[in-house]
Amino acid sequence: MEKINARRIALDVLVDIEKNNAFSNIALQRALKNKEIEDRDRRFVTELVYGVIENKIYLDYIINILSKIKMNKIKLEVLNILRIALYQIIFLDRIPSAAAVNESVKLVKKIEFGATGYVNGLLRSYLRRMDELTLDKEHMDIAEYLSIRYSHPKWLVDKWLQDFGEVFTEGLLKENNETPPLTVRTNTLKTSKSALMKELIAEGLEVEAGKYTQEALHIGNAASIEKLKSFQQGLFQIQDESSMLVSHVVNPRPGDFVADLCAAPGGKTTHMAQLMENKGKISAWDIHAHKVKLINEAARRLGITIVDARCFDAKELDETFLEKADKVLVDAPCSGLGIIRKKPEIKYNKSLEEIEGIAELQLDILKNGAKYVKKGGYLVYSTCTIEKQENVGVMKRFLEGNQDFELADINETLPENLRTEQKYLQLYPHIHGIDGFFICKFRRVR
User: What pTM, to 2 d.p., does this model score?
Assistant: First the structure.
């Protein structure tokens, strides 16, 4: 049996992401599924993929200086072999530079034999010149420097500098390139947090309690978590703490009728079901049938029976639900710029025009969601972005056009270390250590 080549798997994943616009987490799952691969190699593949994507602009900056071939003329496979090698040399101290070069030369011989000399020459040229190939912050435009140094598109850096200032922006850019711990939510319908911690430690994992929610656990060394007995038994759900906070803000009670309009893959849906003690009803919608399947699978594994998942476009109005819901959650489609740590390819796939366009979609869905709320009921709006147009902007526009609703103060549903003078919550990765999220809540008063 041929030995698993972690660098080859990483190369295939990177090419898949770039050619097919695939999400990194899905491309990785697809590549590693059903492979007999040790956890150590699985982690190395993951590290190479995320490391290259996180630092792609910087790596390409180096390649562009050293290459005699124009960037757009380099075959995608060869370019990614160079990126993988340079990432190891520059960012991974434990990998000897000679090993990174030699393994990359072996790989290119199998993939594109004619490029062997080119790859070998460029990498050895970097090793000779690495001390001179540094960014000179003092003589560069600050946006250009930050864009290259932290590998974020310049338009996005320009926008954040304007919105947040230099110190805040550099902290955010730096944190976006860090690897967050895997966070899971205890399924309180089946176990307690302390019992789950003991179970996970017995399964060989490093575990610590979360910062903000009672159900959260951080796992430091997970490689193939879905193979764990505790996962298959439904003792936990993979979910970031930011996402868990949304369900606590909704604050559903046993017996409530809740509508979750953009529900897939079901993290918030199933969390709300836990908070409801699996009593009442949640109507969970998604526009894609294959994503509705994910909601049903999660509910089944977790032992939840109150979720009715359906394929429905939240931009449309379902008149059978008018004024029926105690609570409505609109976790709206968004730019995703608060979760770059988890999906680093997001930063390369967005544009200013898209952010402006998606804010209109969010407002449309929110207006529909409002029509399903009973008098005295609540409407919660959340996103996984830090963009003002999509967050406070949508919140204010909704209030201006909906006199039946008022902004409710969510602080009483938050832990003390997140309470502010604002009635809503904006989370930032580099400040709070969790995903960038926005959460606000409206009460129907008439």
Answer: 0.94
